[in-house]
Known about the structure:
The protein contains six helices and no strands. By secondary structure, it is an all-alpha fold. The chain has one domain (3-171).
Amino acid sequence: MKSHSAALLIWFDKILGKLSGFFVATGAIAILLLVILTLIAVVMRYFFNNPISGTEDLSAILLTVFAGASVAYGARHKSHVSVDIISRIFGPNLTRFTDQLMRAIVVFTGVLATYALFAKACGPEKACITGNFNISYRPFYYALAAAIGYLTLVAIYQFWINLVKAPEPHDEEAAE
């Protein structure tokens, strides 16, 4: 692998790592707020018989942020559930091909989903507000689009790494 290509891969890997840290922090804050909101809602409903209005709105928004951040972080750290039967039966060459095929599919669908969330998710004919508090969904669609866009960048990076057959700079298993 040429040195400028290696330097570019290392730079791209560092950028993805920093963005991954942002997504994990965002997801952690969202799930913490969701737990606190749920705890307060349960206490108010069952101990004081005074339910809080709008907890569904806030819960849906926080869950959207958490889900997007989790998908982004999981893509970077390869922590999504996967089944590895192909490599055991057919060997590494077919596995490399199927991995590249799946990454190409992820890039295609990721680009479409990111575009749809940024450009088409909240048109003028749609009611893009929550039911109780009238909170606009638009910024949360953008947050989800950013997370899917990040997932797409990770898939492009992994596709690129596999093309040049280089170990990923952040992957401890590849370094051993």
